[in-house]
Amino acid sequence: MSEPQPEIQVPEFILNDGAPIPAIGLGTYNLRGEDGVEAIRAGLANGYRLLDTAVNYENETEVGRVIATCGIDRDELFVTSKIPGRHHGFDEAIASTEESLSRLDLAYLDLHLIHWPNPSVDRYVETWRGLIELRERGLVRSIGVSNFTEPMLERLVEETGVTPAVNQVELHPYFPQLELLTFHRAMDIRTESWSPLRRAGSLLSEPVIIEIARDHGVVPAEVVLRWHHELGAIPIPKSADPARQLLNLDIFDFSLTFAEVEAISGLARGRMKDRDPNTHEEM
């Protein structure tokens, strides 16, 4: 009989509102139905405690089912959801959040984000005021945004006096966003990385990543996810495969040198698709 594997110890960051957040999360995009439930359940069994969902993922019910039946205390979990573009506005944000909590069967969210700024609609400041109200009511513990630019973040702070705890953005070695990361650090905003391994493409076949993985005795995906950690970002990789989930989580027993981080960042070539937040909008 094989020996049981030691549980991976996931460190935490402290957000600007004092709340602790796990240093890596499980993305749940496209994890729906019974297969989705089993994939999310496997993630929790493997040691993930941060679950990242959204109204537009259409799986809050599945996430809630897993939380209710996983046997893990609610206080040990960190649950994130996101307000879609069609729910922008003060009252709309509050109603949307109440609906999310109902689908999740939860009393509160650990983190709630504005999913996209949708600048042509120009209601993201009102939506942000709704999130501030939700935090005051205790329905949301930490509030943040997703896909916001520096000027958008500055506007939120200027008009409300409240700095987002998190900005979740596209971030991977092909699109390292180093200027935005520097800005986030100056503002004490924690960066979260969606598509941290880049969906499809040749990222994990890059010779520099393969060489670094070989030097550390790990697989290329672990190198990329550790790169995120070295940058102070929280990667949210998605996988339905339990073995892959475990590999993605196992990034805290080695570190990268400054030169290795720089070499990986040097792979920059741009976004996966044309999703510039100044022009790309999702409802």
TrEMBL record:
Positions of the NADP-dependent oxidoreductase domain: 24-267
Site (Lowers pKa of active site Tyr): 82
Pfam families in UniProt: Aldo_ket_red (PF00248)
The organism of origin for this protein: Brevibacterium celere
Full protein name: Diketogulonate reductase-like aldo/keto reductase
Superkingdom classification of source: Bacteria
Residues reported in the UniProt entry to bind substrate: 115
Gene Ontology MF terms: oxidoreductase activity, acting on the CH-OH group of donors, NAD or NADP as acceptor
Keywords: NADP, Oxidoreductase
Family classification: Belongs to the aldo/keto reductase family.
Active site: 57 (proton donor)
